[in-house]
Design goal:
The complex is a heterodimer of chains A (180) and B (480). By secondary structure, chain A is α+β, with helices and mostly antiparallel strands. Chain A has 6 helices and 4 strands, in the order βαβααααβαβ. Chain B is mainly α. The chains are: A alpha+beta (180), B mainly alpha (480).
Chain lengths: 180, 480
C-alpha cells in the first residue's frame, strides 16, 4: 500500500441526533458524497441523509437459506437412498416429508449464519484499526452519547479549509482533523 | 388500567406514565450517558460486589454434583440411573425437555417481540438470551450423557466414516439433533451479534489494558458507522425473522419424539403447540426468577421496571391458559377417542400410584398461577412473582415428569408394568445442572453487558430527530 498523504478527513462532533442529521443533509446538498456518520445507536434519519438505503444483507441471507435447504435435502436423499438404505417399517427410501424437518432446520442455520457473517463481512469487519479512532474525542463519545459526521478527504469537494468552514456553520461541539 | 384517567386517579408514582396509567418502560430522566454508565459500570467496575463471588461459588459448588454424577455415570454406565423397562426414559429426557423449554422464552423475547415492535423487551432481551444459551447448554448435556457411550456422541451427526454408517433421517431423534444444534448455534450468533456494539462501548470506556484488549477484540472494531448500523439492523431483523419459526420448531420437534411413538399419552397431535406454549410459560418464569434478584442487586429498577414484570406475567397468563387447554384436551381425547388404552392411561395418570405428580402439576401450573395472574396488583408484586416463578417451573418440571413417566410405566400389557424410581445420581445430575446454570449466569452478569446499551439508548426520548436540527432542549421539553 502506498503511504497515505494528508489527512483522512474532518470530524465534527454533535450533541444531538437532530444536529447531526441536519448537518449531514446540508453536506449532501452541498455536494459531499464521501462522508460517514458515527452514532451510538442506529439513527435511520442519518442513513437517509447519507442516501444510504440498500443493503445486500437480505440477499446474502436468502442465498444462504437456499444453500441450506438444498444441502440438507440432497444429503438426506443421498444418505438414506444410496449411501445407507435402511428399510424402516416398509417406508419408501426417499421419505421426503420426513426429510423436510432437518432441511428446514438447515435453511434457518445457513440463512442465520449468512445474515450474521454477511453483515460482518459487508461492513468490512473485523477491522480493529480505523483512522477515526485517532481523533482524540471519538472514542469518548461515539459509542456512548455523541454524534459524529466525518467528511472524508477523498471526496472531490474536500478541501481542509473550506470543509472546516462548512462544518463550523453548524452547532458542532468541535471539528477536528483525523489523521491516518 | 389504561382507561383510568389521571383526573379521577391522581398519580403520585413517578414511574407511572400519566397519559396511559401504565408503568413506564424506563424511568424518566435518563440520558444516553446515564444508561451507558449504569450498564457498563457493572462490567467495568474494579469493585466486584462480594455477593457476586458468593453466588459464583455457590453455583460452582452445586455444579460439582454434575461433575461427580457424570464421572460416576461414565465409569459405571446408565445403570446407576433409575431408567429401566418399561420406564426407559427417565430424568434425562425430563430434564432435557424442561431446560430446552426454559430457553424458549429468551428467543421469544429477542425474536418474536422484536418483530412485533415490543420495545419494552430491550431491557430484558440480553439476559433472556443468555438464559437461553445456558439453558440449552444444560439441556444438551442430557442426550449426550444418556447415549451410554458419550465419547461416541458425535455419531449422531452425519459425517463420512469408515464404518459407512449414516443417520436415519426418518427418525424424530435425528430431527432433534438438527433442531437443537441449529437452535444453539443461532442463539449464540444472535446473542453475540447483539453484543458487538456494546463491546465497542465497553472497549471505549475500559481503563484496564486487559479489558480494552478483550472487549476490543470482541467488538471486531465496531465504530458505530451509519452504514454499518443499517446493515446491522437489517441482519438483526432477518435473524429475528429466522429465529421465530426456529423457536416454534424446536419444541415441536422435541414433542415429535413423543408424539411419533405409538404409546397412549404420547401419541397425540396436541403435543407441538402444547409443548411450545409450555416452553414459553416456563421460560418466562425463569426470566422472572433471574430478573427480580438482578434488578434488585444491581439497582436496575430504572431499566427493568414493573412494566416488564407486568408484561411478562401477562405472557405467562396467556401461555398458561394454552397449557391448561392442552391438559383439558388430553383428558377430553382420552374419553372421546373411545380407546381403552387412552382412557386407562388418563385414569392411571390421575388416580394411579403416581397420581400425586399429576395433581402437583395441576396445582402449580394451573390452579395457583391462572387464578392469581389476573390481578394487576399481584402481577406487579415483586415478591409474589418471584415465588410464583419457582412454582411455575416446578409445575413445568412435573409436567414433563408426568408425560414421560406416567405414560411409560403402565403400558399396554399388564405383565410388563413396572414403576419408576429416580436414584440419587439422577437427582445429583439434575441439581448439578442448576448449579452450572447459576455459575454461567453469574459469569455472564459480571463480564458481559447484561442489558443492551444501544437498544436502551434507542428507547430514550432524546432520540427524536427534529427537522432542521432544532436544539436538544426542545426535544426534551416535548417529551416531558
Amino acid at each position: 500500500m502506498p503511504p497515505r498523504e494528508g489527512i483522512y478527513g474532518l470530524l465534527a462532533e454533535f450533541n444531538t441526533p437532530s444536529e447531526l442529521v441536519h448537518a449531514t443533509k446540508e453536506a449532501h446538498r452541498a455536494g459531499y458524497r464521501r462522508m460517514e456518520c458515527y452514532t451510538p445507536y442506529p439513527v435511520e434519519e442519518a442513513a437517509e441523509a447519507l442516501h444510504f438505503h440498500k443493503t445486500r444483507v437480505p440477499l446474502v441471507c436468502l442465498l444462504g437459506g437456499l444453500m441450506g435447504v438444498t444441502t440438507a435435502f440432497l444429503m438426506e436423499t443421498w444418505v438414506n437412498v444410496w449411501a445407507y438404505p435402511l428399510n424402516i417399517a416398509g417406508r419408501p427410501l426417499e421419505s421426503w416429508p420426513a426429510f423436510i424437518i432437518p432441511a428446514y432446520e438447515w435453511t434457518i442455520l445457513f440463512a442465520g449464519f449468512s445474515a450474521c457473517f454477511g453483515m460482518i463481512a459487508l461492513n468490512g469487519l473485523p477491522q480493529l484499526y480505523h483512522p477515526v479512532f485517532n481523533a482524540p474525542n471519538f472514542r469518548n463519545g461515539a459509542t456512548t452519547d455523541k454524534f459524529f459526521l466525518c467528511l472524508e478527504a477523498t471526496d472531490p469537494m474536500f478541501s481542509p479549509a473550506e470543509s472546516r468552514a462548512f462544518l463550523e456553520q453548524f452547532p458542532a461541539v468541535s471539528v477536528v482533523e483525523v489523521d491516518h | 388500567m389504561a382507561t383510568k384517567g389521571p383526573m379521577q386517579d391522581p398519580i403520585v408514582d413517578p414511574m407511572i406514565d400519566p397519559r396511559t396509567g401504565e408503568y413506564a418502560v424506563i424511568a424518566p430522566g435518563h440520558t444516553f450517558k446515564s444508561v451507558t454508565q449504569k450498564i457498563a459500570g457493572i462490567v467495568l467496575t474494579s469493585n466486584t460486589p462480594l455477593g457476586w463471588f458468593f453466588g459464583l461459588v455457590v453455583g460452582a459448588g452445586v455444579a460439582q454434583g454434575l461433575v461427580i454424577g457424570c464421572t460416576w455415570l461414565f465409569l459405571k454406565g446408565t445403570g446407576i440411573w433409575g431408567v429401566t423397562i418399561p420406564g426407559a426414559w427417565g430424568f434425562a429426557i425430563i430434564n432435557f425437555v424442561w431446560w430446552i423449554g426454559i430457553g424458549h422464552a429468551g428467543t421469544l423475547i429477542s425474536a418474536i417481540l422484536l418483530l412485533f415492535k415490543q420495545t419494552w423487551r430491550n431491557s430484558i432481551n440480553r439476559f433472556a438470551e443468555a438464559m437461553t444459551i445456558f439453558a440449552v447448554c444444560c439441556a444438551g448435556l442430557f442426550p449426550l450423557i444418556h447415549v451410554g457411550r458419550p465419547w461416541l456422541a458425535y455419531w449422531l451427526f452425519p459425517y463420512p466414516n469408515t464404518m459407512n454408517v449414516w443417520p436415519q433421517f426418518r427418525s424424530p431423534l435425528a430431527w432433534d439433533v438438527f433442531a437443537v444444534s441449529t437452535y444453539a448455534s443461532i442463539s449464540v450468533i444472535f446473542w453475540y451479534m447483539g453484543m458487538i456494539p456494546d463491546f465497542g462501548t465497553l472497549r471505549d470506556r475500559a481503563t484496564m489494558p486487559l479489558a480494552k484488549y478483550f472487549y476490543g477484540m470482541l467488538s471486531l472494531g465496531w465504530r458505530g458507522s451509519t452504514r454499518h448500523w443499517i446493515r446491522y439492523e437489517s441482519a438483526s431483523l432477518l435473524l429475528a425473522g429466522l429465529s421465530t419459526p426456529l423457536v416454534l420448531s424446536v419444541h415441536t420437534v422435541i414433542s415429535f419424539d413423543f408424539a411419533v411413538a405409538a404409546l397412549a399419552g404420547w401419541h397425540t397431535t396436541i403435543f407441538p403447540p402444547y409443548f411450545v406454549a409450555g416452553a414459553i410459560y416456563s421460560g418466562f418464569a425463569m426470566v422472572i426468577t433471574l430478573a427480580i434478584p438482578i434488578r434488585k442487586f444491581y439497582h436496575l429498577e430504572d431499566l427493568v421496571t414493573l412494566r416488564h414484570l407486568d408484561n411478562m406475567a401477562k405472557v405467562m397468563l396467556g401461555t398458561g391458559l394454552i397449557v391448561g387447554y392442552g391438559y383439558g384436551m388430553e383428558v377430553f381425547m382420552a374419553w372421546y377417542s373411545a380407546s381403552h388404552w387412552e382412557f386407562f392411561m388418563m385414569w392411571n395418570r390421575m388416580f394411579g400410584p403416581m397420581g400425586w405428580a399429576y395433581w402437583i402439576l395441576i396445582l402449580t401450573n394451573l390452579a395457583i398461577p391462572l387464578t392469581t395472574l389476573w390481578s394487576r396488583k399481584l402481577r406487579v408484586n415483586v415478591a409474589y412473582l418471584f415465588i410464583l416463578s419457582f412454582i411455575i417451573n416446578t409445575g413445568m418440571w412435573f409436567e414433563r415428569f408426568v408425560i414421560v413417566v406416567t405414560s411409560l410405566y403402565r403400558e399396554y400389557l399388564p405383565s410388563s408394568w413396572g414403576t419408576y424410581r429416580a436414584t440419587k445420581w439422577d437427582y445429583m445430575i439434575y441439581v448439578g445442572t442448576l448449579g452450572m446454570f447459576t455459575f454461567l449466569f453469574f459469569l455472564f452478569v459480571r463480564f458481559l453487558p447484561m442489558i443492551p446499551m444501544s437498544e436502551i439508548r434507542m428507547m430514550l426520548p432524546q432520540t427524536k430527530v427534529t427537522p432542521g436540527g432544532a436544539k436538544a432542549k426542545t426535544v426534551s421539553e416535548e417529551s416531558a
